[in-house]
Amino acid sequence: MKKVNLLLVAVVAASVSAPALAEYTPNAHFFGYMRAGVGFDKNGGYNTQGLGGVANKVGRLGSESDAVFGELGLGTDVAKVGDTIWTVNMMLGMTAGDSDPGNWSSSYGFRQFNVEVKGLFDWDKDALLWMGKRYVQREDIHITDTYYYDISGTGFGLENVSLGSGKWSAAYVKRASDYHVFDTRYSFPLWDGASLQIGETYTLNKKPADTVSENNYKVDLEKGIFTKLKDDEKVSKAPDVVNGNTFSLEFTQGFNGGWNKTVYMWMKGASGATTEVGASRSNGDANAHKIYNFGETSLGGDFHLFHQVDYTYQKFDDKDNTKVQEYRVVLRPWLKLTQMTRAYVELGHYAKSTAQDNKAEHENERMQKATVAYAITPDAGNFWSRPEMRFFVTWLHVDGNNKGGNATFTSGRKTGSTDITVGAQVEAWW
Fold it and tell me: If pLDDT is split at 50, 70 and 90, which confidence band does 4 have?
């Protein structure tokens, strides 16, 4: 009881001593995301996103992790000066597995914590300046949970600055402790219902310090560690660091009954080696080309289709002249049954081939999936309606000779096998 009284006194004292600016009534908004699922096969296993990337490769419906994942966000407009509005945003992320029913093993962390100010420029009231940790204009494909354009991290940036007929954005983000991302985008309308976005992202990676010798000791200049040299040991020079670069084009077309987006990305250096827009330090230097096409289409009445088709080509600058090709096709047709129920079918096919000059046989990985699901949601005629509760049956097949072991099921299974999983999944955002 004493603790409660002390807390009450602190809150009252803070409200009384607040500056005059607090006369502005804060506008708070609560937002977030969650998903949770359970499932099993005849062996008690569950082939999920974490096991070989099933959801990313052949579709997330009936393939997501059975752990609980959630994001809780809170934003508050804390001040208004003239036409400017100052907002503080935070988001707490949580994940919990099923090994501990008491959830004592759950992990938490701040996924976002930032300040925004809108209306700062008299000549452009829609422009926004932000600083802190933030999701930076992430772009994703929902049915495979793929964030194809994601530079999120801690930094600062400008968004939605009017420039000609379009909007310009720029950001600097530091990711982890050893690389920096510089990003700029310009989006403008083409014709009724159509737009084009041009993006350029450069990644600067930190070069590690050389290891030098001094009085028969090896010195790590970066960490400040001294280690006595062995008789046959030599000092080492830090490996070369490869920076990354990505140029992207995104064409979006809306039409009666749906929309479609086509994305092209050219990646060089670390970005080409990892096929990531904001790529970290890489041991390889590569050129890569990625093409995505995805969208939603009405097939008539209450019948709809969401699709994704993509292709990636990588050519590494290495002694083996490594070439990697990857493609996937995911189709999710769905039918509204009643006001709050609908039926899904999701079909997915994924293939990857790795060729090297010194190997006659290519490494191959292939995966196929088919899921049937029944869902309950507030507005069954809207694809994005959430919350949604789903009951599903998933058939999954994997084969190939990939020595890396990516084309595998749960522990103990071999490639070239088939599995059937039954389960339920709930998803919500607000």
Answer: very low
Residue 104 in any domain: the answer is no
Which pairing describes strands 258-269 and 286-300: parallel, antiparallel, or unpaired? antiparallel
| Residue for token pair 């983000």 | 173
From the list 374, 369, 327, 366, the residue with the least C-alpha distance to 347 is 369
Residue 327's domain comprises: 118-206+241-429
For residue 326, what pLDDT band results from cuts at 50, 70 and 90? very high
Nearest of 356, 380, 354 to residue 365 by alpha carbon: 354
In a domain, 125, yes or no: yes
Q: What are the CA-CA distances from residue 319 to residues 54, 284, 327 (Å)?
A: 31, 11, 25
Nearest residue to 55 (alpha-carbon basis) of 41, 37, 32, 31: 37
> Which CATH number fits the domain that encloses residue 194?
2.40.170.10
Contact assessment for residue 117 and residue 28, using Cβ atoms and an 8 Å cutoff: no
Dist CA 249 CA 244 (whole Å): 17
Q: Which residue has the higher pLDDT, 289 or 82?
A: 289
Flag the least confident range among 146-155, 171-180, 274-283: 274-283
Q: What's the CA gap between 313 and 140, in Å, rounded?
A: 20
Most confident option among 98-112, 174-188, 265-279, 369-383:
369-383
Contact 85, 77 (CB under 8 A): yes
Rg of the chain in Å (alpha carbons): 25
Looking at residue 231, what is its pLDDT? 57
Determine, yes or no, domain membership for 176.
yes
Q: Average of pLDDT values for 281-300?
A: 90
Give the residue from 164, 355, 181 showing the smallest Cα distance to 279: 181
- pLDDT at position 282 is 67
**Residues 102-134: tens digit of each pLDDT:** 555 568 889 999 999 999 999 999 999 999 999
Starting at the edge strand found earlier in the chain, the sheet holding 225-228 runs: 211-214, 217-220, 225-228
Distance CA 143, CA 306 (A): 8
273-309 burial code (b ≥16 CB/10 A, e <16): bbbbbbbbbbeebbbbebebbbbbeeeeeeebbbbbe
d(CA 363, CA 81): 61
Structural domain includes residue 330: yes
Number of domains present in the structure of the chain: 1
The amino acid that residue 171 corresponds to is A
